Amino acid sequence: MPRAAALGCPPVASTDALVHAVRPPAGDPAGALVLLHGRGTSEHDLFPLLDELDPERRLLGVTPRAPLTLPPGGAHWYVSVGIPRPHPETFQATFELVSGWLDALLAEHGLDHDRLVLGGFSQGAVMTYALGLGGGRPRPRGLIALSGFVPEVPGFELDLDGLDGYPVALGHGTYDPVIDVEWGRRARELLEGAGAVVTWRESPMPHAVDPDYLRVLAGWLEELLPGP
User: Fold this and answer.
1) pLDDT tens for residues 37-77?
2) If we measure between CA atoms, which residue out of 182, 166, 51, 66 comes closest to residue 121?
3) What's the CA gap between 6 and 157, in Å, rounded?
4) Per-residue DSSP letters for 97-137?
5) pTM, whole model, 2 decimals?
6) Which tens digits make up the pLDDT trace of 148-178?
7) Which residues on adjacent β-strands are paired with residue 35?
8) Which H or E run contains 197?
9) Among 213, 193, 194, which Cα is nearest to 202's?
10) How many CA atoms does the CB half-sphere of 90 hold within 13 Å?
């Protein structure tokens, strides 16, 4: 059953709002890297990617668990009812909940949104677009969206103004049977049309993360959030 926090209860601006795993930085953090997992997994799924993307541990790394528990199991960010339209009520509730959690996380560690890179895979990529580009939300330093799509939800809009030069890294499997690669291409076209600088990798694989692309993203990330 869905947890109460994602069913209309007011969002709590606290890091206790979501279960999450933390990988501490080696020293004072140059910023934060937050990764959102895909449907039906947990905060542990993308946790190993923190070291892949930030091998020197310059950043605070965090992987939260989605707030919904749904069949066939695992954690979910929203009820999946089709692409590109998540279930509106669960999507909106999760958006509000995770917005408050993310703001509290950064405040707890003395970081601003311009020191945050937000990323995700599959459903987590959908939420990355929403949280990173949603109207009224502070914009992170950059976004990583892997194997996802830009959500279309009644009453919810992206703010694509002022994206000139904004860094976004997108990746998608050419043979993805879950979310067709065309959705990744559409996201690339949308963001480039708004002025964003999009790093794109289309990999000959199914619905999965390309390990070779992670090495590219590690360099991309280091340029975005250099050390002090």
Assistant:
1) 999 999 999 999 999 999 999 999 999 999 999 998 999 99
2) 66
3) 20
4) HHHHHHHHHHHHTT--GGGEEEEEETHHHHHHHHHHHBTTS
5) 0.94
6) 999 999 999 999 999 999 999 999 999 999 9
7) 119
8) strand 197-203
9) 213
10) 20
